[in-house]
Every structure is written in structure tokens, then in C-alpha cells.
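FIELD: query
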Amino acid sequence: MRVCEYRRSDASNSVRGDVATSRRGFTLVELLVVIAIIGVMVGLLLPAVQAAREAARRMQCSNNVKQLSLAMHNYHDAFKSFPYGHKQEVAGQTKRRDTWYHRILPFIEQQSYYEAYDRAEDTFGQFAAEYIHRLPAEIAGIAVDGLMCPSDPAGPARGGGGSNNGFQGNYAVCAGGGTPVTAIIDPTAVLNLNMILEDAGGMFGRQRARKFRDCVDGTSNTLAVSEGIIRGSTGGSWGGLGGYWGGAPHGAFGFSAGETPNTTIPDRVYSCKSVTFMRAPCENGFADGLPGRWNFARSYHPGGVQVGLCDGSVRFVSDSVDRNTWRNLGNRQDGGLLGEF
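FIELD: result
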């Protein structure tokens, strides 16, 4: 009886041993299949994660544009006009090349910063405050988060205004959609895109503080602000979009709606940070003897740019928007008919 029990026990152990041996691990084929499945799943997941992150950045950019649009309205309520695009230079004055950016600071929760800038003549002397790009980095170099698009990897950046002292942002006001060279308003006419004229057709220009009543085409049909691309986080240049500290007379204060968003036609400023930047081609207007100065609306958002209209609303406008519609949006009183945008 004991022998039988012993044999049964031995047989049981043998069975358990066989089971344990059969469950020792995966075969090579099984392992390769699992790795392949994981690779496919990661490949499918990463684009979705990147798209979700860009959607969040685009939403933040939209919020920045909205805050700027509301700040423009609050400024108008306080001073009965929008701020000028940039100050007209007069010999002997201080804070030459002051722009809408400096005027709007108290209305985007930067009152203390504005007061420090306003006292700069007393703090650093008249010579330093004559041109705002001569102010030290402790004033000019302060980055304002609400003026940076989170999709642009260059921010916070400096440059665009003649030195590395000044903060460079992503947002600018609309100088206009360009004016036809011919005397008759003709959508097919060759445009003069020069945005640093006293009046390039838009709501913002040199020493021009316009009112709602000047928006003859309607506030919901006229561009106020949009975004652009910074060509690198540092580097001296004159006139790159968002170069608030000294670059205004060379185009930094605004953008032209003469060409559609993210156009392949180069921006043309006094001097570029880079002329080989793929997403934002640029021409050195001064060095190459080219007439006119302009920046176009650009962004890192796939397919278009964020814009703020004069009524305070925010829209995402596609790169494929009709060129004449975009141009008409840029001009405040051309009477042009708008298509879908």
C-alpha cells in the first residue's frame, strides 16, 4: 500500500514537473510578434499625443490673441482711440520708436512694468532713453508671456530691434492689406505692400491713433492683430515682426495682409536674423537695396494663423484663404467684398 502511494506521488511530481517545464518562457517568434505589436501601437500613439499638445498650444495662442483684442478695446475706452502703431520720430524726443506694445502694457496686467519703462529717462538718463533700443536689458529684455505663442520654439526671444537687449514677441498689429499702385481700387492691380507708410490702409500706422468710427468696413470685417514667426531666440536685426524695442520704423510693429498667411514670399525688413529660415523666408531690404518693408502673418500652427478682429473676436484663418478676401480684411475702408474666411 505504501509502495502504491509512493508511486502515485512520484507520478504526480512528474506531471507537475512537465507542466512547469512547458511554461518556462516565450519562444523567439512570440517575442518578436509582441515587440512588433508594441512598436505599431507606439507609432499610432505618438502622432495623437503630438496633435493633442499642439491643440493645447493653439488654444493658449488663441487666448493670447483674445487678451490683446480685449486690451485694445479697454485702451479705446480709456483714450477714445486705439494706440498708434508706432511713434513718429522727432529729433530730441525721448523714447523714440515707442509702439502700441508699450502703450498697451497697463491693459494686459503689466502696469508696474509700464511704470518702470515710463520712468526710464530718470533712471538711466536721457541718452539711454532717447531710443528705446538703448535701454538696458533689465527694462527692454523683460519677456511678457502673453506676447509669446507657445508653438514657437524661439520664445522667449530677443532681437528684431537692433540689439539683443529687447524682448521679441510673436504678435503684431495690422498695418493694412496694401494699396493698389493704380488710382482705381482694382483687386488685380499690383500692390504697394510697404507697411511703414504713414497710412498703409489698416487700423494701425505711424502716429495714427484711429477710432472705431475709422473702421468703415465694419469691426467684424477688419483685422486688428495676428501672429508671426521669430527667426531664432537671439540675434541682432532690424524690423523682424515683434521686435518691439527699436525695430518699428523698419516694420517690426505690424504685419501686412498683402499676402496670405504663411506665404512663401519672403518678409522684407531692414536686416534679417536669418535669410534661410524655411518657415519664414526673409530678405535684407537695406543690404540688398530692396524698396519697401513688410512682414506677413505666420505661425507654427498647421494650416493657418490666429487673428483678432477689431470687434474683439478671434478666428483661425486658413493658409488657403482667398488672397483678395485676406487683403480686404487688412484694409479698414476699401469697401471690398469678403468671401469665406
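FIELD: remark
The chain has one domain: 46-330.
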